[in-house]
Design goal:
Strand content: over 45%
Helix content: under 10%
Number of helices: 1
Distance between the termini: 42 Å
Radius of gyration: 21 Å
CATH topology: Methylamine Dehydrogenase, Chain H
Largest sheet: 5 strands, antiparallel
CATH class: Mainly Beta
CATH architecture: 7 Propeller
Number of strands: 29
Shape: globular
Length: 337
């Protein structure tokens, strides 16, 4: 009886191990960085586990915006030349859907559930709200010279910047109307909103730095200037010394690009101190963090490469060649199965 008892125990152990393996396999994922090459027709894909370029997706001329839902099962990109929003399989690069929009699109934003995508229309003075289930634009709101959409991590609202109105506007996705308009004291460029939606941080045209606005009071409460930089010489970003800005996942730091310096600064929100500059490629454009906060990715639009920074040591780990004119970058935790 003893041999039978042992074999049964082993069998049970093997079954348990198999179940554990299946569960881990089902939950396995890859942390992938996507880089849109705005002067080309593709998106570069970098695996943050290996820090290697692993794929290139052909998507259409002049890809501009990148966004994704929280589950990482889809990737959205706006294509300027074709005036559409494309849904892409983030693993294979296969184009799953193409949704026409009302004009030349810029940086998009998706709700975490993936239901809605906001698409600024640069040549239409408007923002399109795309319903991804209905596969069409369901609302068009007026915006004077829109630039970027942003989602703060919830399904009930979204933001769009108005370069012509010197403000950033909040959209209520239930009513499909504006619920707030926040003046920022200048022409807003890239911006970020805290997850609790109390604070807004934005770069401005001709400012080497950023401003902080209190969303509830609709007022700018502070202007932060970065150290002096040499004259700006970045063809893709005229009069915009800062064109990348993002909060770390833990909300403690704001990372900011300096195009003229070819570097990145870290602003610690609690101490209000700015770090020494982290050197990257030429004309650093956009910033994205890995969900775990370990890596910061920066597109370098004039040297056609992408810098990966270790956020703990604040050192550049690698600089990888991508396509032509890289702009938006996005890190997505992509399920393997």
């Amino acid at each position: 009886m003893r041999p039978f008892f042992l074999s049964t125990r082993v069998a049970i152990a093997l079954l348990a191990a198999a179940a554990a393996h299946a569960a881990s396999t089902d939950s396995a994922s890859r942390m992938l960085l996507y880089v849109d090459n705005s002067l080309g027709n593709d998106i570069s894909v970098i695996d943050l586990a290996t820090l290697k370029l692993v794929d290139t997706f052909k998507v259409g001329n002049e890809p501009h915006g990148l966004c994704a839902p929280a589950d990482g099962r889809r990737l959205f990109t706006t294509i300027e030349a074709e005036k559409n929003l494309k849904t892409i399989d983030p693993v294979t690069g296969k184009i799953l859907e193409t949704i026409p929009v009302k004009g030349r699109p810029n940086e998009c934003a998706a709700t975490p559930d993936g239901r809605y995508v906001g698409v600024p229309i640069r040549d239409g003075n408007s923002v399109d709200i795309v319903d991804t289930e209905l596969k069409k634009v369901v609302k068009v709101l007026p915006v004077k010279e829109p630039h970027n959409c942003f989602n703060a991590g919830n399904n009930h609202d979204m933001y769009v910047s108005s370069m012509g109105g010197d403000e950033i506007d909040r959209i209520d996705l239930k009513t499909m109307e504006y619920s707030a308009k926040i003046p920022v004291g200048g022409i807003p460029r890239p911006y970020s909103v805290s997850p609790d939606e109390k604070w807004l941080y934005t770069a401005l045209t001709n400012l080497h730095g950023f401003v902080i606005a209190d969303i509830a009071s609709r007022k700018v409460i502070e202007k932060v200037e970065l150290p002096p930089a040499p004259p700006l010489d970045c063809p893709l970003e005229v009069n915009t010394p800062t064109h990348g800005l993002a909060l770390t996942p833990d909300g403690r730091e704001l990372w900011i690009t300096s195009l003229a310096d070819s570097g990145v600064y870290v602003y610690e929100l609690s101490s209000k101190k700015t770090s020494p500059m982290i050197h990257v490629g030429k004309c650093p454009n956009w910033i994205s963090f890995s969900p775990d906060g370990k890596y910061c990715a920066v597109s370098n639009s004039d040297s056609n490469d992408c810098s990966i920074i270790d956020t703990r040591t604040r050192r550049e780990l690698t600089r990888l060649k991508v396509g032509k004119g890289p702009k938006r970058v996005l890190v997505v935790n992509v399920p393997v199965h």
